[in-house]
Amino acid sequence: MSAQSKKRTVVENGDGGIDMALAASIANSEDLGPIIRHTFETGKPEALLHHLRNIVKKKEVEIEELCKLHYEEFILAVDELRGVLVDADELKGMLSTENFRLQEVASDLLLKIEELLELYSIKKNVTEATQTLKICIQVSNLCITCNRHVSEGRFYPALKTLDLIEKDYLHSIPMKAFRKVIEKQIPTMKLYIEKKVCSEFNNWLVHIRSTARQIGQLAIGQAAAARQRDEEMRARQREAEEQSRSVVSDCVYTLHTENSDEDSVLEFDLTPVYRAYHIHTCLGIGEKFREYYYKNRLMQLNLDLQISTAQPFLESHQPFFAQIAGFFIVEDRVLRTAGGLLLESQVETIWETAIGKMTSILEEQFARMDTASHLLLIKDFVTLLGATLTRYGYRVTSLLEILDNSRDKYHDLLLSECRKQVNDILTNDPLEQMVIKKEYEYNMNVLAFHLQSSDILPAFPYVAPFSSSVPDVCRIVRSFIEDSFSYLSYGGIMNFYDVVKKYLDKLLIEVLNDSLLTLIHNSNSGVSQAMQVAANITVLERACDLFLLQAAQLCGIPRRLIERPHSGLTAKAVLKASQNVAYNSLLNLVNSKLDECTTLMNSINWTTDETSEHGNDYINEVLLFLESLISAARQILPLEALYKVGICALTHMCDSIVGAFLSESVKRFNLNAVMGIDNDLKMLESFADERFYSSGLSELRKDTSFRDCLVEARQLINLLVSNQPENFMNPVIREKNYGALDYKKVAAICDKFKDSPDRLFGSLSNRNTKQDARKKSMDVLKRRLRDFS
């Protein structure tokens, strides 16, 4: 029964219940605490004590009754107990005896046991000492191994050994002093290894900066070799295209294979970098080394980006750019192979820094340059630099933009140099036909520029239709095309044929054409020199097609594209116009020379009594000049130009003859003078016919021949020697026989015409019927002309 139920029982039954509850709890060996606590709480301890005494008395009565009931058995038990006591005494005596005997026997054994225990203690100490020594020896051996690795420069095995000591042996070393020594030396060794690899890395930094230029030069050299192979391939393709155009049926396809080292790997040692980074990573300070590497390499780059002021940029640009190329080739290799030492963003950052500095340097240096070849040399190396770094994944657009922005400046410098060269050539040109004595000279000056008039090799010495300035100018133009192509190629422009064509037009128009016009307008040369200038311009105008073809071939443009309509050079039309200017200048000089020759007409006796059968003196001079003029023009001018020169010269002679009759110095003339002029005119007409047909001008199918240029003078002479000059006023006859004559000129000339020589009584002595009829007809013509006017 629980304490709570007991409490309730006591409360319910009062004092009698407490007595029974106490008796029951004592009989059951239960705890009396709750009952006692309840009694004291109710303030009745005396009653409890009374009840307990009653219970004790009841128990004593029960014991007495029980003893009385079992008294005999109790006595027997006591007797037996006494017997057992006797037996126990005997047994005790026996045990004492046996113990004494045992003590005697075991005393020796105890001594042995003590010795054995002592030996066991010694063994234990020896074992512990052996274990301690074994651990110490192992640790010592590991320390020796670590020292050997460090001395041999094998830092990673040394670190692995230190880690092994620290993790597996250090806490198990029983010798505290030895353990403290090891604990102190481990950080020292790690610091030593860190310093050692840092020292090696610093040496590598110095070494790689000194070899970066060589690395860059080798890489740029590979890019140059690759470019050369590309150019040779394009040249073979152009040659194959030309052959396929000329011989379509015999096409031969070949595959050219070459062993190249374009993809060969640039060899440079990054072992110190790998080892330093790996060691720092093993030491748990990899981030520290990454920052150290980046900081030092950035410092080196900033040093590399400083150009030398001790020498011109033209001399220092190649080492400068090679150094930068080598730097970024190394960085690319580190980025790809160093396992996270460099981040791609870090490489991009330093590349942006470098390219920004390079572009500013190029802009500044290009602005200072005044020589096209210097600018081209630097541009060419910069494009090689761009091609090299592009292979390693760097963006070089900014560099190419700088080159493109300097395109106009380069061509302006190039045009300026070409202008000076052309002016020097034209100034020193003797303006005489070029005499070529050897075949190699012919190949170099004629065939090289397709200036030949025939594919048949001429006999030597060969007199070319142009002067020495033409092939020299062609060489300048060809060099300009090559230089322009060299600058524009491998840059940011993809289709640069149009750009080359634009600058070629600019050269031919603003340089060559302007120089030729200056030569034409400022020259004080004679007819032969002016004719040579016109012939040269004709050849140069034809050479424009060759220049355009050269540009197209260099740019890889098929020939069929440049042969399309409206695809030629504007300069061709401009040179054509300048050719007309040269022809006009030539014609003016020809007319001036003819005027000099016709000044001899002032010595003609216009009232002579006799007719000159051999012509007047001036006509011989005129014919000699015209003969040399036509012969020279026939050699160097095209038929069209020859025709134009002949037509102009003979027309001018016709005007000079008619003008002589109209001259104020001629007051009157007679029939004999007219007959002399008629003989002169016949000589001119004979010359005109012979030269017109012998020169092949008849093949031009022109409406006007050389003789036709003299028709005004011929009709005037025919009118003056006609028996019926009054027929001039007949429209039908005039249209048929005198259509080239002007009324006013005829009237003025006829007023000066006197049918008889001017001598005393001449009109009475020699007059005959025929003369009278002519005179009357002339008088009628004069009168009718006066009436008409």
TrEMBL record:
Q: Which InterPro entries match?
A: EXOC6/Sec15, EXOC6/Sec15_C, EXOC6/Sec15_C_dom1, EXOC6_Sec15_N, EXOC6PINT-1/Sec15/Tip20_C_dom2
Keyword vocabulary terms for this entry: Coiled coil, Cytoplasm, Exocytosis, Transport
Q: Which domain of life is it from?
A: Eukaryota
**One Gene Ontology CC term in the entry:** cytosol
Entry-linked Gene3D superfamilies:
Dsl1p vesicle tethering complex, Tip20p subunit, domain D, Exocyst complex subunit Sec15 C-terminal domain, N-terminal subdomain
**In what residue span(s) does the Exocyst complex subunit EXOC6/Sec15 C-terminal domain sit?**
398-752
Task: Tell me which residues make up the Exocyst complex component EXOC6/Sec15 N-terminal domain.
Answer: 51-220
Q: What name does UniProt use for this protein?
A: Exocyst complex component
Source organism per UniProt = Ananas comosus
Query: What's the encoding gene here?
Result: LOC109712642
